[in-house]
Design a protein that fits this description.
The protein has 1 helix and 2 strands; from the N terminus they run E-H-E. By secondary structure, the chain is mostly loops. Bound molecules: FE2/S2 (inorganic) cluster.
């Protein structure tokens, strides 16, 4: 299963995002978030750093319960 297999250490959280980098950091300008943005926390989104719903498959396969962090603006 993708929870345990793979050439990389299965202790890794990140199995696919920008594996050539020593540390994956994403800078998002808050002015570029219109109303809300959902950021991936399962590390499996194909639209990283944003959530694309892939956490649903992950949760089913791995009996996990992860989901995105949603950043939203207060109504003015
Ligand atoms: Fe990773 Fe939704 S796809 S949290």
């Amino acid at each position: 299963s993708p929870c345990r297999s793979g050439a990389r250490s299965n202790k890794r959280v990140n199995q696919k995002v920008r594996l050539n980098e020593a540390k994956v950091v994403d800078m998002i300008d808050i002015e570029d978030i219109s109303e809300k943005a959902a950021f991936c926390r399962c590390w499996k989104s194909k639209n990283w750093p944003y959530c694309d719903g892939t956490h649903g498959e992950h949760n089913k396969e791995c009996n996990d319960n992860v989901g995105p962090v949603v950043v939203s603006r207060k109504q003015k």
